[in-house]
Known about the structure:
This protein is 20% helix and 28% strand. Strand 5 (87-94) and strand 6 form a beta hairpin. It has helices at 6-17, 56-59, 127-132, 147-157; strands at residues 28-33, 36-41, 63-65, 71-80, 87-94, 103-108, 113-115, 120-122, 136-137.
Amino acid sequence: MIGQSPVQRLIAMFSVAKPHVVKAHVELMEVTMTMHTAEVQTRRPSGLKPHTLIASDRVEGTPVRRPNGEKIGAIQRLMIDKLSGNVAYAVLSFGGFLGMEKKHLPIPWTRLKYDLAQEAYQVDLTDEELTRAPAYEADEEFDWGDRSQEIVIHHYYKAPRYWGV
């Protein structure tokens, strides 16, 4: 450690003491200390390959955009079918100002596509379609046990039902 800069010592301690903290998807890590900035290229742990899976907590908060890049809202939460394990809905947080009059729109997962370039989910809906879409107020609870409400949602978005016929 003698003769190493503070950044080099930090990097050495981090990589030796806590190698399990480095996540496979991290390609570049910036370490900033007083008067020193270093970019450190990290290696993917051996055996791990690139993949298309994502943790649910990383989906929450992800922007939802139109094909032209305009932001519509962000994913508030995912609704997962307990029996099949499939994602049924992305609940979009939409509209409002300072938390007032914000709405949640449950959008069938099959209607969303991930855009790598925008790092956002994409859905092709106009403002009018979003305004008319089945929604509930941010401070209300949606009754996910009411299949008739889900039928309305799937019919509105012309999406296949995740639960079959």
